[in-house]
Specification:
Layout (H helix, E strand, L loop, with lengths): L11 H5 L13 H11 L4 H8 L3 H15 L4 H12 L4
Helix pairs in contact: 2-4, 2-5, 3-4
């Protein structure tokens, strides 16, 4: 039997993937926190990669996930988000 108009195929890799959570809702992993901290110190991707003994592409991948999780679009946003969560009212 064929599929009619509007019927979608079920199965495949897409069916196995968990639903995505809204951006900014998932906590950062330990490595993402480490990279976010180095970003907030002003280090460039190459400097972070050298310090952590990973490739620059790995740093870029982590940063894209950090941006999505924090709901920011740049490195300044990462630094602001880290500062906002680390400042405790007196």
């Amino acid at each position: 039997m064929g599929r009619g108009a509007g019927q979608k195929r079920r199965g495949g890799a897409a069916a196995l993937r968990p639903a995505r959570r809204p951006a900014g809702r998932r906590p950062l992993t330990e490595r993402e926190r480490q990279i976010a901290g180095l970003v907030s110190e002003g280090l460039k991707n190459r400097e972070i990669a050298d310090r952590l003994y990973v490739t620059q592409k790995t740093v870029e991948m982590h940063l894209s996930r950090i941006f999505a999780k924090l709901g920011v679009s740049n490195r300044v946003g990462v630094a602001r988000a880290l500062y906002a969560t680390s400042v405790k009212p007196g």
